Amino acid sequence: MIGAWHLSYLRLRRRPWTTLVLVLSLALTLALPFGVRVLMAGYEQQLLQRAASTPLILGSRSNRFDVVLSALYFRQARLEPISLPERQRLQDQAEGVVVPLHLGFQAQGYPLVGTTPEYFERRHLRTRSGHWPLMAGEAILGATVAKRLKLETGNFLFSDVPELYDLTVPPALKLRVSGILQASKGPDDEAVFVDLSTSWILEGFAHGHQDPEEVDSKLVLGGDEDGVVMSRALLSYQEITPENLASFHDHGDPERLPLTALLFWPASSKEGTLLKTRINQGQALRMFDPQKVVEELLAYVLRIRRLVDYLSGILAAVTLTLGGLVFLLSSRLREAEFRTLQRLGCSRFFVTRLILDEIGMVVSAALLLALTSVAVAGLFLGDVAAWLR
Asked: Given 66, 155, 276, 308, which residue has the most CB atoms within 10 angstroms?
């Protein structure tokens, strides 16, 4: 038996490219379905864990997936805003913790999230350095943002301007980094958090500029005598400091200040269910159970995974068929070799064992390579939620 195994090994070694193609083809066929299952299982767990930690979300009557994914993962979506007074109304209707969220802006490509300190308490976020934003113009960075942008406490970063050539849009705001969060292995690591007042300044509901009576200089737009002349007092500050903070003032009705969503942690599940039913009977707003919405979303993902499994099954059948055909043709070409072995005294079983050992070696090598590939993918690509965002 050892002689048959040794001869099979020598033959495969003599034809390395044919053996390599067979091993890689079979390994890919085995690794694809198992790899998808391993990665998707971790992804589903992360989604459900994030959703389960947020009992209820109040938002506009927009697409439920957009509202929930925006509130949980800061996904950019066009949502109808809700007004600031809804926060107090929700607090008056039931006992619990209300956390406002304002989304829609970015800072150097990362979502800029306006919220309150209660958010950090409910998400169990801790600072690695510095402190929470205490005034408008300050920002605290997620661990990943700070690492990629190479920023530390006391540095600055600018917000992104949605419309570069629209003069009616507020200019980019220079944000001072007040702190950096510890890594949480979630979407909070890839976000920039600011106070709600900072978000509303970016929306254009407030701005600051110098007193016209204190500014004498003029600014000529166009660079010549025929250019448009305007006072420098009309230019908004691009940085908020303790010296100019008092000059920032609101425009319009404070009750029109927008929010993207309200996260709500009720005092009890019963109270949360009653509140959800009462709000959803109205026409203006809607309260979502994020866990149910995410489970519904994952149901669609499961259908796609089943399709991948079916396709993998077809690919496996084709690969096995081609592999069997290769060994069959190889056996036909080796008839002279087999006759020589029989003349030397080898039995027909020995010849059959040669072929079976070759197949076994190829399958074993492919299985080992497939398991190794799945393990490596799970190790380096395990946080699927992070690189899918």
From this structure: 276
pLDDT single digits (tens) 270-329: 888 888 888 888 777 899 999 898 888 888 877 777 777 777 778 777 777 877 777 777
Q: Where are the domains of the chain?
A: 2-46+298-388, 56-205+251-288
SS3 per-residue string spanning the chain: CHHHHHHHHHHHHHCHHHHHHHHHHHHHHHHHHHHHHHHHHHHHHHHHHHHHCCCEEEEECCCHHHHHHHHHHCCCCCCCCEECHHHHHHHHHCCEEEEEEEEEEEECCEEEEEECHHHHHHCCCCEEEECCCCCCCEEEECHHHHHHHCCCCCCEEECCCCCCCCCCCCCCCEEEEEEEECCCCCHHHHCEEEEHHHHHHHHCCEEECCCHHHCCCEEEECCCCCCEEEEHHHCCCCECCCCCHHHEEECCCHHHCEECEEEEEECCHHHHHHHHHHHHCCCCEEEECHHHHHHHHHHHHHHHHHHHHHHHHHHHHHHHHHHHHHHHHHHHHCHHHHHHHHHCCCCHHHHHHHHHHHHHHHHHHHHHHHHHHHHHHHHHCCCHHHHHC
